[in-house]
Input
Amino acid sequence: MAEARSVGLRVGVVSADDADQAPYNRVVYRLTSDARGTFDVDRYSGVIVTAMELDREQVSAVTC
Output
């Protein structure tokens, strides 16, 4: 991914299934503390977007 992309750029999506019956099968997503501030995840859709402009010279990798 190129640097200096705008905040809110979609970079991925996560998904999970729960075999339980509604309403107990709702899955909610969150990021680990290492990724907070760099990326955001929509709690219900799992879409991951940038929360800040990415700069490889400052941080070369982020573990989620």
